[in-house]
């Protein structure tokens, strides 16, 4: 068994444990951790359980989690974990949320697992091995016409500089809304990116790049034959400003729309 395959098995087991925790908690507490930013005790329970499991299984690999920050590891590899991506949805009983775990090596992810616990789907990928949903291979959209495209857009910015950032988002929504088949705002980067990999969405525009939100989904999209770039159209890395995932046939259209929204002239 290759190292990537072995580490994918570890990631699968970790996310299965997380799914069990999420689905077994009939009630939970919700608290604010910032401006319109929520956390539940399920988020922290999942992260704590997976930190313990991953530290035991892969003690040489560090971990960056949304709720507890970065710890452990002695090399350049680390796990990027979002224990519940889409906490606001989860807290309201909306089943659009996911558990996202990626192994990051240098600037890119090499192993990815995203589980959608209320939709019964687990997406997996290892570099060079393709992307899968419940063990069945998936592929990104081949659409080439914007009029055929269903596009997910990430949440509006909150906190510092939110008004400035959201001005560009509103411009982008107006542009895409006038030309795309449909625009969706699902509230979970894990779902947005998984569904681009699965061809359910033709593009997902996440105008931020927290590694715990995006690195698993980025690998899924690439292994499914899609493209992931930064806001300016350059190659996406862990240090990118934004995460723009799209079927290859719509790459130029999407990057051009972003340039217009942000006033970029090439």
Query: Could you give a short account of the major beta sheet?
Result: 8 strands, mixed
- Please indicate the percent range of residues in DSSP E strands (runs of 2 or more): 25-35%
Order of helices and strands: HEEHEEEHEEEEEEHEHEHEEH
- Helix proportion range: 25-40%
Cofactor: Mg(2+)
Protein name: Inositol-1-monophosphatase
Enzyme class: hydrolase
Pfam family, one: Inositol_P
Commentary on this structure:
GO terms for molecular function: hydrolase activity. This is Inositol-1-monophosphatase. Its cofactor is Mg(2+). The protein has 266 residues and is of the alpha+beta class. It is built from seven helices and 15 strands. It has helices spanning 3-23, 41-57, 87-91, 162-177, 189-197, 211-223, 251-261, and strands spanning 30-34, 37-40, 62-65, 69-71, 77-85, 98-105, 108-116, 121-126, 131-133, 136-137, 150-153, 182-184, 203-206, 227-229, 243-246. The strands form three sheets. It has an eight-stranded mixed β-sheet with strand order 4-3-5-6-7-8-9-10, sandwiched between helices. A hairpin with a 4-residue loop joins strand 7 (108-116) and strand 8 (121-126). Helix 4 crosses helix 7 (251-261) and helix 5 packs parallel to helix 6. The longest helix has 21 residues, at 3-23. The chain is globular and about 50 Å long.
């Amino acid at each position: 068994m290759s190292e990537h395959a072995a580490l994918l098995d570890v990631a699968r087991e970790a996310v299965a444990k997380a799914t069990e925790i999420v689905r077994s908690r009939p009630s939970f507490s919700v608290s604010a951790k910032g401006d319109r930013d929520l956390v539940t005790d399920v988020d922290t329970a999942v992260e704590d359980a997976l930190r313990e499991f991953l530290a035991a299984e892969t003690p040489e690999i560090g971990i960056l989690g949304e709720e507890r920050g970065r710890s452990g590891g002695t090399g350049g590899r680390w796990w990027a974990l979002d224990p519940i991506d889409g906490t606001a949805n989860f807290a309201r009983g909306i089943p659009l949320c996911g558990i996202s775990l990626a192994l990051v090596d240098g600037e890119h992810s090499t192993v990815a697992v995203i589980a959608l616990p209320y939709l019964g789907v687990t997406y997996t990928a290892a570099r060079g091995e393709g992307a899968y949903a419940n063990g069945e291979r998936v592929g990104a959209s081949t659409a080439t016409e914007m009029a055929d495209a269903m596009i997910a857009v990430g949440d509006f910015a909150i906190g510092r500089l939110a008004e400035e950032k959201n001005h560009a988002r509103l411009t982008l929504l107006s542009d895409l809304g006038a030309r795309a088949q449909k625009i969706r705002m699902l509230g979970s980067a894990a779902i947005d990116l998984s569904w681009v990999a699965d061809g359910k969405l033709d593009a997902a525009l996440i105008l931020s790049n927290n590694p715990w939100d995006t690195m698993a989904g980025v690998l899924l999209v690439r292994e499914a034959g899609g493209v992931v770039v930064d806001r300016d159209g350059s190659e996406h890395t862990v240090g990118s400003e934004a995460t723009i995932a799209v079927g290859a046939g719509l790459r130029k259209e999407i990057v051009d729309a972003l340039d217009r929204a942000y006033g970029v002239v090439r």
